[in-house]
Each structure stands twice: as C-alpha cells, then as structure tokens.
Amino acid sequence: MIDMPPLQFAHVNGIRMGFYEAGPKTDTPPLVLCHGWPELAFSWRYQIKALSEAGIRVIAPDQRGYGATDCPEPVEAYDIEHLTGDLVGLLDHLGIDKAIFVGHDWGGFVVWQMPLRYLERVAGVVGLNTPHTNRAWADPIELLRARFGADMYIVQFQDGAHEPDRIFGSRVEQTFDFFMRKPLPRNDAPSAEPPVAGIGALPKVNLAFPQIVASYDGKLDPRQPFLSSEEMQVFVDTFTRTGFTGGINWYRNMSRNWQRSADLDHIVRVPSLMIMAENDRVLPPSAADGMEKLVPDLEKYLVRDSGHWTQQEKPDEVSAKLIEWRRRRFG
Fold first, then answer.
1. Which long-range contacts (C-beta less than 8 Å, at least 24 apart) are formed by 146-150?
2. How far apart are CA 183 and CA 173, in angstroms?
3. pLDDT digits (tens, 9 = 90+) for 29-73
C-alpha cells in the first residue's frame, strides 16, 4: 500500500477540511484531486505519488462529509454551492490563485461546476468518468424515478428516514466488498440505457444498491476485487467511524442544485480533459458524447479494460495521462 502524505487541516467555508499535499509548492498550476462516492482522498494515493514525483504539486481533500473533514448536520450544507465554495476556500488557505481541478464520480460533477461559478480560480478541468452535461430539462430525481423506479439507489437516497445510510453503515465491509470490484468482461454485461439529458446513461442492471448490499455475499461474486486487504481496511475503518450520511447528502441536494442552476451558463471556458473508462456501467464513455458543444477546448482519452474506479483500477495509465496533459497544456 502506498503511504499518503501527512494529513493537514484547513478551516474553509465554515468547516474544518482534512487534505493531503505533495510536490513542490513552487509548481503552478497545482492539481486538486476530488474524490467521489463512497470514497476518500485516499482513492488518489497512486496519483499523489506519481504526480508529485514528476514535480507536480498535488492537493487531495477529503471533501465535505467524508473522512477527516467535518460532516455538518443540515442536508442543505451539502449543495453544490457549498461543495465548490469549499474548494475555493482551500485555494485561499494555501495562497493559490488558480488550480486544475480533477474529479472522479461525484467529484467530477463538482469540478465541472468550478469554472461555471469561479472561472477566475480555475486553470483547467479534468473529468474522470463523469462528463459535463447541460442542465436537465426537469428535476433529475423525478427523471430518474420515472425511468428506473423507486428502488433506484439515487431515488432511495432521497428517503428522509436515512434507511440506505443505516444499511451501508451496519455493513461497512460488505458495502466496500460489493462496490470495489472490477466489472465482468464486457460481453457478459448488459448495455446501457439511452442517456438522460443532464444525467447521462445508466445501465440496464439492478440499481437497488442498498438492498443488494443487505443480502450480498462476496464469496458468490465472480467479479475480482482490486483493493489489497490493507487498502480495503482504510475505507472500512474510515466509514465505520464516519458513516455514510455525509456523502449521501450530496445526492439529497440534486433537486436543490437543479432548481438553483436555472440562470447558470453551462459553457466551460478552460482547457479540459475527459478521461473515460471503457467498462464503467454507470458512467459509460457514451455519456460523454456531445460534450464538445459545452466544452469547446476539450480532449478525450479512453482507458480500456477499466470499470468505474478508474484511478485505482488503472492507476499508472491515469497518472501518466494527467502528467502528459498537464505538461503539454500548462508547461
């Protein structure tokens, strides 16, 4: 297992944020690595090491509600305005003018929002698996409910009784054993549904994740895990301590985010890179089709034979592409 840099803390945007930093402080613009759900800054451990050894300054926070960072109680404290404001506050704390924001999964959604809201603080954006999309034509939760039903995990996450949080929190090791595996070969997997505007594509598979986890037996799962036992323990120990509510609260703000973005210009006006994973069932490469209309300065790169957890499944390839693109576009 790769060691992380020392954990540091910053008081930003009303919370205490834990973050990791490596590489020369003189390097600019630095890369800020933003994780998804259910993950941590630790998910970027390979990239932190590779980029810093290449002379690139890199910063990876545990985001709001995760790991070493505070977990406020109000659901509204996890809307996109807070999440992007946290990253600006982190730049302010470190005395950084502009950064390249790199985001995977939910972190990808956050970093694509950064140039829409704080263009003067953004040098570039990299989306890992998560594409930038235009604003949905209707409330995204209602669109998901209409297409996939009430059992779809994002729809379930809207439950005010926090039943999904309880299921995951009472079965932490089971939860990560289910999620952190490579997908089956592509010819064994069902195709994706057509994309929903503003949401993207989702697979024709069972998306009732809380119920799957509740009855899951890893011994019967033909998919191969990609974490070592020591790496798995980091996730299990951390989420045993924190629970899952903070991260799930990000999903509980999807309707609020949609409502409050009606007047936002969704064109991304900075150099951008979209890294896609060939076998991601939830965020397939096809979800990035047409991004060029919203991101004029866009480069795309496909990581083959990788599922959803791209920076951990294919760490060397992801790190190499980040280093190459950063050097070519920013020196």
1. 147/193, 147/196, 147/202, 148/202, 148/207
2. 19
3. 999 999 999 999 999 999 999 999 999 999 999 999 999 999 999
SS3 213: helix
Question: Mean pLDDT across the chain, nearest whole number?
Answer: 94
Closest CA to 244 of 170, 194, 177, 312: 170
Mean pLDDT of 12-30: 97
**Whether domain 7-330 has CATH 3.40.50.1820:** yes
Q: What residues act catalytically?
A: 105, 308
**pTM, whole model, 2 decimals?**
0.94
Rounded Cα–Cα distance for residues 13 and 65 (Å)? 13
> Of 98, 85, 95, which is closest to residue 32 (Cα–Cα)?
98
Q: Are 44 and 16 in contact (CB under 8 A)?
A: no
CA distance 103 to 91: 16
Handedness of CA 132, 138, 139, 142 (dihedral sign): negative
Amino acid at 36: G
> What three-state secondary structure class fits 97?
coil
Regarding beta strands 15-22 and 99-104, do their DSSP bridges make them parallel or antiparallel, or are they unpaired? Answer: unpaired
Taken as a whole, the chain contains a residue count of 331
Reading phi first (left if > 0) and then psi (alpha if -120 to 50, else beta), residue 201 is in: beta
Is the preceding peptide bond at 190 cis, omega within 30 degrees of 0? no
Q: Are 126 and 55 in contact (CB under 8 A)?
A: no
Beta-bridge mates of residue 68? none
Torsion of CA 294, 298, 303, 306, to 10 degrees: -30
Cα–Cα dist 255/140, whole Å: 6
Q: CA dihedral in degrees (167, 200, 316, 47; nearest 10)?
A: -70
DSSP state string for 152-192: SHHHHTT-TT-HHHHHHHTSHHHHHHHHSBPPPPGGGSPPB
8 Å CB contact between 156 and 163? yes
Place of tokens 């990000």: 250
